[in-house]
Model the fold of this input.
Amino acid sequence: MIDHDRLFKELISTFFVEFIDLFFPEVLTYLDQESITFLDKEIFTDVTEGEKYEGDLIAKVKFQEKDAYFLIHVEAQATAKTEFNRRMFTYFARFHEKFSLPVYPIVIFSYDSPNKEAVKQYEVIFPDFKVLEFNYQVIQLNLLNWRDFLNQSNPVASALMAKMKIDPKDRPKVKAECLRLLVTLKLDPARMQLISGFVDTYLTLNRSEEIQFQTEIDTFSQPVQEDVMEITTSWMRQGIEQTVERQKGVIIRLIKQKLGNISPSLETDIMGLTIDQVDSLLEALFDFSSVNDLRNWLFEQGIEQGTEREKSLILRQLKRKLGDIPTSLETQITELTIDEVEALGEALLDFSSIDDLVNWLNV
Done:
């Protein structure tokens, strides 16, 4: 499941000025860009529905050349909900009450449907009297044409094009154009990865679309092609790594089914295997009849099992300090986790008898 809230919050908070500049450039004419401070999340309970709501992103900013501040509240909404306008007013009222500052409210709707224009205000009206008219800014991505943002030298544009109004046949082209725009911005690797990950999340292509995507990339100039291919190669590496991690989890479950429980340190060693070693272990597993077979296999692969070595070292230190250790205690020590092994390594310096070790193990 896609964590829409996290993706949009990361994007907007990282590129806050660029976000404002893209959609509300007038605000930058009176906003002091050096004064931006993000406030802690604000949570309140809707007393009518009994639900807890959390303000997405709240920035405290200063007016230019004035000793006065205001808030910018950005709410990212991934689903269409009834009476959302009332919730926006409730946010506004709570923020205004708590901080005693003007609030500039913005909603970014990222849902795919409905395609009708979203409500932009909340009103309280009587037949003879309008009590309230609350307005807020709306960015409704499914009504924006991605082509209108192709030439925007703005990282937020390169990301949000992936969620705009896109004809299904244009999905590969849009993804390619998002990356073309991104590489021209020359961002640092972390910000580049944030945006490319956003694009890849919302524009996952099928096999035929991938072919068209590659065709689109081939139309770019050679330097741009190379930069875009570097991003797509990193996606492939991440995809392979995720697949291998899943394979390792499957192998651990298979080993437990065949041999019974294994120590956390052996699990750690398995999780540290390379891709080729994972494939080899999957084949070798069918011939294992005991945990010792697994240990021997790992040893043959050149995996010394660092945690196991540390346990052996601690056992030797304990025997030198306390004398022979009962087999039952040795077994307990070999079953310790990595963190517990490190803690025992520190604690044994204070031991003066076997009882100290027993007490420590039983804590």
